[in-house]
Amino acid sequence: MKITKTPVKSPAKAPKAAAKPKVAFFDFACCEGCQLQVANIGEALLDILGAIDVVEFREVMSEKYDKDYDVVIIEGSITDHHAEERLKKIRARAKVLIAYGACAAIGGVNGMKNSFKLDEIRQYVYGKDYKLFDSTPTRAIHQVVKVDYTINGCPIYPPELVEVLKHALRGLPYTVPDNPVCSECKLNENVCMYERGVACLGPWTKAGCNSWCVNNGNICYGCRGEVNHPAKNAAKDVIAKYNLKPELIKNKFDMYNKCKEGGK
Amino acid sequence: MTEIKNSNWKLRKGQIIAAKQMTAAEKWFDIKLEDGDLDHEPGQFVQVELYGVGEAPISVCSSPTKRGSFELTVRSAGRLTKHMQGLGKGDWLGIRGPFGKPFPVKLMTGNDLLFVAGGLGIAPLRSLINYVIDNRREFGKVDILLGCKTPTDMLFGDEIKGWQKRLDVEFRCTVDRSDPDWKGNVGLITSLIPGVTITPEKTFAVVVGPPIMYKYVIAELLKKSLPERQIILSLERHMKCGMGKCGHCQIDHPKNYYCCKDGPTFTYEEVKDSKKL
Amino acid sequence: MKSWPVSGSEVLPFLIFTAFLRPPRRAGEASRPLIEYNIWAVSVIIKTEATSVNYHILRKDKLDGFIKSLARKMKVCAPVAKGHNNFAFEEVSSAGEIALSYIPTILPPKKYFMPQREKMLDFDLTGDQPKDAANLEAPGMAIFGVHTCDLAGIQCLNMVFSEKPRDYNYILRKEKVLIIGLECNAYCDGHASCALVGNHYPNGGYDLFFTDLGDRFIIHVNTQKGEELVEGMGLAKANPADMSALDAVREGKKKAFQNEIGTELKDLPAVFAKGTDSKVWKEVGDRCVSCGNCTNVCPTCYCFDMADTINLDMKTGFRTRTWDSCQFGTFATVAGGENFRSERSERQRHRLYRKFKYPIDKFYRSFCTGCGRCTRTCMAKISLKDTLKALVAENK
User: Fold this and answer.
1) Do A76 and A131 fall within a single domain?
2) B118: containing domain
3) Which domain covers residue A195, as residue numbers?
4) Domain edge (last residue) among A126, A145, A170
5) The domain spanning residue B221 has which CATH number?
6) Looking at the partner chain, which of B10, B248, B256 has a beta carbon nearest the beta carbon of C358?
7) Which residue ranges of chain C lie beneath pLDDT 50?
8) Range 8-27 of A in CB contact (< 8 A) with B
9) How many CB pairs under 8 A join A and C?
10) Sequence spans of domains, chain C
């Protein structure tokens, strides 16, 4: 693929080269690992930076910008009242909001908090003065404000970030594939993890990551969230075929998908 | 690297020479191809490519008797058609086609015609209706029945007024839900069929509309003793290649029909054994 | 093969000569008209000529030399062990890398003819008017060790993509591939159903075809391209003993390979025609995960999706074709939202109709090649053989 560096001018509603879209990154409860993935984009990063104007990015800059944003990229999940208020304020100033990474998209590992009674877990973490520390059940971004685009994954898959950004800049909807990870894993001709005797969440997890983990010898941890119509009966068959315990699969799913019960 | 000069994936270049918002969700485009006429027949479709966005199959809504350009009416439904709403005069499109089996115009010659259109079904049917009007003396009695959700959803309003005024065409229309300005029929399109005089041995009915409409309209037509092979339908599927290969438009029917190649127009006799119409 | 004499003056001495080449006459057998001897002699000559000219021998210890020599000419792909009894066609440069005894690979060789993701069109919007070009990169290559089931799969795809309007991406790729088949002397495993569809024997579709005769391979040369290759490598012609050994292998397979479902292939379309509303589909649908594994690994599944990608310059981009699966929930949806195959049972039925009903009506051949991949790869252990048997049983 030839990458040329002409100024951005899309066929429809092109943001003019002179006024590049203002893009801001904000993080909530997360490890900020997804923001670091931006650095892993490689060569395309220069083209992206040529197409947008990054106005907030805590990982690399600290200036404060006080106007509206064309695109905000939200990393992390919402775990206390303060975060909820801050997110709503950001949303009010953003034309387009992208939920970025598993924590933002589906709650991610922070959702494990929801496996416990809120006060019990607060007490466990903060000790006897736990009431002094604000805390709510973990929520994904779309469970608090309207989300225009979702980039799944823990961490996000850099080529998908590039694709979603291009869609967002052109005002096109981006569809997260609703097929299981298996569908991409097979195209990559990986030996099925189940054949290796290891339980993998590929059959129930949304594709779009090009089976990144399995390509590199790891199982799918379900970080992109469950497909919309998971085959419940089939799951029983799969578990039986490979002599696995249903709890094993459920526990693995809980690692990233505990906010699902949170609704919306 | 070799260039495949005769690749069937290559696109004809079309420029929008006129565009008009018809309803809140539907927009009309007049498109001129740089390599000449589209050379289609009524009932055929084209694949419209918005470079970098994707491709979608769209019925041609103008008659081949109109030369120099062709027309599309696009409802904002999928990714491509939503984006198309933002296009206007001067914008370029990629076009593949025309594809598909057209309405059997030759077989219809000398017969009475009954057109039944529901909603956006008027788009492919308009191609045939205008063709028939332009060749009016070749056909017998012509009845047009049109059904819309509400009066504001009606497409081609100005043109329809023209059809209403014609002495050689009988036009009737109904809406599911009325509004204060509406003076016409209210009710489902099936309610208009009993009022039409049909001579079963020499009438072709051409029915185009949403899948739900087919079942009821066909039942009414069969009640009028119209033979199954004289009921022509245009089925909707998502044709992704137009060449009978990608598999998306295959109909669940013992005969292995691809909507893009064997259709989209079928006689009811051909497709009555389909799982879904 | 040499051309036969055609003119009368050439035919007459030939007939007289062949008339003396009598088959051994059994005791008590009446003498037969001369023409019968002619026919017998001609048939012997044809048979001998076919066998001696078109078969060559490669000693197994020379296979490495063969592969290396081939690899110097072009990219060579062959089955490679991936562990856990999984195999895949991958590029090789020596015989040592090749798994000669392998069960069907994860993906069939269709990936070399119709890549998983293939660029069909480049476009450029920098000028006043859009420009596009269909560029193809398909360097010459050889696939070594293709089993008869996969040869049949390629033949099926050839039919589909050569049908008008033709798919030139496929056709041009195909022309660049040299295919070297490899016979299965025994079943790969219990999931295969190649005898049902008659693909346990070679039915063409290759340039060269290898059969293992213990210490050596006997190679059937099927094309001029194949002939030039073996001639160039100086491989010896097969002798009558080699031919008998090949016959013995084939004869042994007659017993080893038996129709796996106990119903003839020709009877299946009728079974399917009657079985549209069978409860078998419901049962299979209840178990299906919709992962699309069965279609991705199928040698004859070719459904695809098209998508556009724009480059970051927002002015250039390309259209790609990606393998799609009729098992995915949205495969048969239209923009308005209507889904013409929303149930898993409908989608599974559709998949098997596209193997045993539609293609038999249209192309006179089964699009199931009997490779057994769909059963092997199914997450839910849905077995093709069991499904077919259940469907047949219901129709009895």
Assistant:
1) yes
2) 105-234
3) 182-258
4) A170
5) 3.40.50.80
6) B256
7) 1-8, 19-30, 33, 40, 42-52
8) 10-13
9) 129
10) 8-53, 56-116+128-256
Domain endpoint, select from B99, B132, B150: B99
Q: Tens digits of per-residue pLDDT, C300-347?
A: 999 999 999 999 888 999 999 999 999 999 999 998 889 999 999 999
Label residues A69-90 b or e (16+ Cβ within 10 Å = b).
Answer: bbbbbbbbbbbeeebbeebeeb
Give the whole-angstrom CA distance, residue C242 versus residue C262: 34
Per the domain annotation, does B219 fall within a domain?
yes
Mean pLDDT of all residues in B93-101: 97
Q: Residue A94: inside a domain, yes or no? A: yes
Say whether both B111 and B65 belong to one domain: no
Residue to test with chain B: of A172, A174, A176, most B Cβ within 10 A: A172
**What is the pTM (predicted TM-score) of this model?**
0.89
How many domains does one find in chain A? 2
Do B77 and B139 share a domain, yes or no?
A: no
Checking if the pLDDT of B107 tops 50, the result is yes
Interface of B with A in 20-59 (CB under 8 A): 50-53
Report how far residue B84's alpha carbon sits from residue B76's, in angstroms, rounded to the nearest whole number: 8
CB contact under 8 A, C314 and A1: no
pLDDT of residue A61: 59
Give the CATH number for residue A98.
3.40.50.700
Q: Does the beta-carbon distance from C286 to A234 stay under 8 Å? A: yes
Asked if residue B207 is part of any domain, the answer here is: yes
Residue type for C251, please? E
DSSP-derived secondary structure letter, A46: H
